């Protein structure tokens, strides 16, 4: 399975027939010292939900964050075969689900930049529950940034007051993150889309009025379908495995919302070609939609109409886009 730019919800993995494989990184007979060689004395495992509804604290996409990982996460590609087995091997209660994020640098006091104008930089890698590295995991990045800002605030208030921006390095990408009140913002480069024509699309949108179709350049990137304003996205059927017969692109379905409600755009995200029937809250898709809806909208307040739902924000800034959202930490354990 390629390292595609998609995010993964946790629902499909509950009955994964491939779960329970042996782990290459930590064999079953590992000792506590083996574990300690990869994790610091104060490493934590936390379950977050990213892109929640701030008013209700509900919804959002689940993410398990292990902070204090002493090995370089960038070198861990493909070594995790099942998150639940991995956490069990570490003697961690099975309280966590969703994507797995590894944060290598967590000693905030050691992260003081030599130049006050420089940003603190942290290495992070994200994996699906089946062990594949996620190329761009928006909810994982949001959860990681939220965790770091919380750590800075509680562990080093002076540093927190001086550092308005941090850098998260994921693979070949560097993402700036800022905190505005309780809202975390991630900055991405603009990914352009081009108009597209696909004669097969009406097969998946019977009864809907397709207004526009666009796609990113990569063959395994994104396909965006804009429906008539105020379309009821809940009535869009899951494309299922049939989508792979026509495209290897993840499918984003979107509609503008009129009226005076809290949201001016709705969307849903499907990537069944990569095992994701539908994602819960997809920050990587939101960065695409920020550019797609410009110039009609410079600011988006979006509702992702999945079962769990997600609330996402974006700002288009000419040469970059910002994707924002709120997080909640559901639980934490120390290893």
UniProtKB/TrEMBL annotation:
Residues 9-37 have a biased composition (Basic and acidic residues). Residues 1-39 are annotated as: Disordered. GO terms for molecular function: isomerase activity. This is Uncharacterized protein. One of its GO terms (cellular component) is cytoplasm. It comes from the Bacteria. It comes from BD1-7 clade bacterium. The lineage of its organism: Bacteria, Pseudomonadati, Pseudomonadota, Gammaproteobacteria, Cellvibrionales. Keywords: Isomerase. Pfam families: PhzC-PhzF. Belongs to the PhzF family.
């Amino acid at each position: 399975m390629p390292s595609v730019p998609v995010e993964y919800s946790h629902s499909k993995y509950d009955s994964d027939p491939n779960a329970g494989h042996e782990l290459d990184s930590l064999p079953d007979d590992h000792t506590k010292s083996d574990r300690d060689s990869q994790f610091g004395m104060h490493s934590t495992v936390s379950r977050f939900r990213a892109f929640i509804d701030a008013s209700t604290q509900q919804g959002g996409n689940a993410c398990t964050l292990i902070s204090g990982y002493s090995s370089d996460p960038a070198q861990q590609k493909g070594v995790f075969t099942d998150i639940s087995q991995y956490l069990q091997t570490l003697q961690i209660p099975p309280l966590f689900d969703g994507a797995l994020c590894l944060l290598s640098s967590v000693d905030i006091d050691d992260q003081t930049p030599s130049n006050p104008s420089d940003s603190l930089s942290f290495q992070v890698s994200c994996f699906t529950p089946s062990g594949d590295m996620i190329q761009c995991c928006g909810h994982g990045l949001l959860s990681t940034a939220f965790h770091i800002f919380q750590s800075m605030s509680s562990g080093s208030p002076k540093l927190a007051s001086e550092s308005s921006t941090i850098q998260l390095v994921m693979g070949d990408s560097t993402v700036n993150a800022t905190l505005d009140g309780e809202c975390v913002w991630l900055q991405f480069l603009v990914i352009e889309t081009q108009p597209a024509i696909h004669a097969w699309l009406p097969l998946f949108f019977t009864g809907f009025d397709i207004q526009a179709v666009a796609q990113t350049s990569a063959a395994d990137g994104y396909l965006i379908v804009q429906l008539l304003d105020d379309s009821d996205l809940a009535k869009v059927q899951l494309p299922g495995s049939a989508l792979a017969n026509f495209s290897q692109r993840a499918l984003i379905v979107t509609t503008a919302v009129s009226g005076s409600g809290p949201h001016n755009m709705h969307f849903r995200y499907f990537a069944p070609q990569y095992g994701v029937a539908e994602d819960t809250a997809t920050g990587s898709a939101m960065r695409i939609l920020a550019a797609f809806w410009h110039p009609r909208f410079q600011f988006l307040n979006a509702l992702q109409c999945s079962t769990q739902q997600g609330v996402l924000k974006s700002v288009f800034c000419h040469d970059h886009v910002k994707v924002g959202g709120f997080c909640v930490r559901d639980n934490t354990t120390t290893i």
